[in-house]
Structures are given as C-alpha cells and as structure tokens.
Amino acid sequence: MSRPEPARPRPTHFDLVRTPTFAGAALHRDEHLRRDPDRQKEGWASARVLFVDPDGLLAVIRSESRLWTRVGAELAGSPPEEAMLLGEADGTAYWVLCGAQEQAGAGPEIEWLNGHAVGGETGPLDGALLAAAVGLRNWHDRSRFCTRDGSPTTPVNAGWARTCEAAGHEEYPRTDPAVIVLVHDGGDQVLLGRHRAWPPGRFSVLAGFVEAGESLESCVAREIAEEVGVTVRDIRYLGSQAWPFPRSLMIGFHALADPDQPLNVDETEIREARWVHRDELREALARGEWRAAPRTRTLNRATMAADTSTEAEPSPLLLPGQVSIARNMIESWVLAG
Q1: 303: helix, coil or strand?
Q2: Closest Cα to residue 29, out of 130, 115, 175, 129?
Q3: Do residues 60 and 111 touch, judged by C-beta distance below 8 A?
Q4: Mean pLDDT by 10 residues, the chain (337 residues)
Q5: What pLDDT, on the 0 to 100 scale, is given for residue 302?
Q6: Which helix (H) or strand (E) holds 79?
Q7: Cα distance between residue 228 and residue 254, in whole Å
Q8: How far is CA 295 from CA 55, 76, 82, 163, 254, in A?
Q9: Cα(189)–Cα(70) distance, rounded to whole angstroms?
Q10: Which of 89, 149, 169, 284 has the fewest CB atoms inside 10 Å of its own CB, making it the most exposed?
C-alpha cells in the first residue's frame, strides 16, 4: 500500500507576477532637456501633448485604453510657458498642458477620467506619462509659495522646479514614501483591513507613511502594530509603484505574523481587519474588481464617517483594482500557493 505524498510546504517568499502600474521605464526622463529651451523648441513641432483639467481628470480615448494627445505644432509654434515636459520615448517628446477641458479641443470620442479609472488599462508608456503628468500637476498646485520665506514661486526647467521671487530658492517635486504590506501567516491566510472610507466588503493590504528619520523596515513594523496590533517578522521587499494621488511612492513588502495574535484595530483609520483564507481570495479575484465611479474625487467627511457595516447580510469580499500594487501583491501571493 503506497503512502500518501507529504503536503508541499507553502513558500514564505514570493515575487510580484507583473510590473506594477506606473512603474515601467518606458519614459526617458531627460534632465538636460528640461534645462535646454532651444532643444525643447526644436522638438516641439513633433511633440505629443496630453491634457489634464483643473480637477485632475485626463483626456482619454477610453475605447482604445490610451491617453489622448495632440501634436505640438497644432497648438503653438513653441512650448507654451505653462506646458510641462514629461520626457521622451522613441525620439518623441511628451508634454502636458493643464487647463479647462474646452482648451484641449477634444472631440466627443474623448472622455475625461481620473487616473484610478484608466491607469490599470494603460500600457507602460501611457502609465508612465499619466503618473508624471498627474504628479507634476498636483505638486504645482500645492507649491505656489516658497517653503523658506513664503514668497510666490514661478515654474522653471519645463515644470520640474519652482523658484521663489524673493531669493531665488529652487524647490523640486516632492514624493512622500509610504509602505504597503501583505501580512501572511506562512500558510494560507493573509491579514486584510477595511479603511473607514470604504464600502462594506472592500478590503486590502495595510499601508502607512514613512516618518522622518525612519527606515522602511521600521515603518512596516510600526504601521502594522499601530493599525491592527500585530507584531510582524521576516520583512521582505517586493516592489514599488508611483502613486501620484497626490504624490506618494508605494513601497511594497510582505511579512510574516502569527494569526493567533489578537487583533487590536485602530478605528481612527481602519473600520475592521480580519484574516482571509487563500480560497476566499481566489473567489474574490474571479469575481473581478471593485471600481469607484470614474469621476470620483476626494471623499468628504460625511462619506468617511458613514458606517454601513451593519447590513443584515455580509457583503462579498471586494479587492483593490488592477491599477494598484495592492492588487498585484494579493494576486502574486495567491498564485504562489
């Protein structure tokens, strides 16, 4: 009588199954070109220009899942002062103009969507352009005055710096690092949380901003302990993703934890947290993804304060959309088992 084969041990380490959205290197960021007005003017005639409106919505050909652009020569003889250079790809320069939708001259086939709605459907180049365009626009909107002396600032270097009028101080686009962590038990369970602003059933991995003077690994341990009261170990890096909403860099990790530890949820941010089995995640992934309304912007306080978690019937598990590294991390962990 043959003996049953021993169960295959679950891997405690895994890799991302695909490059995160916005993380590709399809766009060449040329520092020298940003400081060379003559080269900028020379390439403007064949440059491609994309558009962002005052609410941060981008002009998109939704039927083709790509950003809509116009040729620079159609707009002006040289780059307008308000245009921002995103970079180059295959010898073509890419710029962005921010303004009212009517200024773009877009036809009825063009939709204006936020980055969450379209980002997961774009290719590597459009994803890189989207992240740079939205990130730059958000930074400029929040950097109109010098952080040293409070005087007004003016864009320079094709949008990649601002100088203050009082003393000529230069300031550059800011990125706020944040860790995002898939906590698992080394077997078939992951620890997920539901943010206070999310609908019932929607869960994701845990995340938080890096504090001044803090290492990434220390931030992982602190954030998980603060948010759900769990101690983690064996912290390992997975990958990163630009997240220009408004200006973050999501740095992905996974870590081990004992599921027998009691959960102590910080309810100022997290509505609830629970351990989820791999089979339940497979079912949720098969159902597709939760989508916010395409034109959704910042949630108001009333929305964040709403508690609809007391519905008579439990909601099905809803996972983050394809645009996020969180979805990538969850899918990668499920496939590793």
Answers
A1: helix
A2: 129
A3: yes
A4: 53 89 89 96 97 94 92 96 96 96 92 88 92 95 94 97 95 96 97 95 97 98 98 98 94 98 95 97 86 41 38 76 95 95
A5: 35
A6: none
A7: 15
A8: 9, 30, 25, 33, 32
A9: 48
A10: 149
Contact present, 93 and 83 (Cβ < 8 Å): no
End-to-end CA distance of the chain: 29
249 Cβ contact partners less than 8 Å away, ≥ 6 residues apart: 175, 176, 177, 178, 240, 241, 242, 243
2 CA to centre of own chain: 52
Ramachandran angles phi, psi of 163, nearest 5°: -115, 140
DSSP reduced 3-state for 64: helix
How far is 133 from 13, CA to CA, in rounded Å?
A: 35
Distances (CA, A) of 97 to 74, 103, 137, 306, 321: 13, 9, 9, 37, 28
In 3D space, the residue among 297, 321, 334, 335 whose CA is nearest the CA of residue 21 turns out to be 321
Helix, strand and coil content of the chain, in percent to the nearest 5, comes to 25, 30, 45
Residue 226, exposed/middle/buried by CB under 10 A (0-12, 13-18, 19+)? middle
Residues 271, 307 contacting (CB under 8 angstroms): yes
Query: Among 96, 109, 88, 94, which Cα is nearest to 53's?
Result: 96
Tokens of 45: 């005639």
Handedness of CA 121, 127, 132, 133 (dihedral sign): negative
* Beta-carbon-side half-sphere exposure of residue 132 (alpha carbons within 13 Å): 29
Between CA 25 and CA 43 the distance in angstroms is: 21
CB 153 within 8 A of CB 143: yes
Q: In 10 A of CB 110, how many CB atoms? A: 17
Residue type, 248: S
pLDDT at 118: 86
Nearest partner of 72 among 54, 93, 90, judged by Cα: 93
For the record, the structure tokens of 191 come out as 């620890």
**Total count of residues recorded for the chain:** 337
For position 75, what pLDDT does the model report? Answer: 95
The 3-state DSSP class for residue 36 equals coil
Q: Furthest-apart CA pair in the chain: how many Å? A: 88
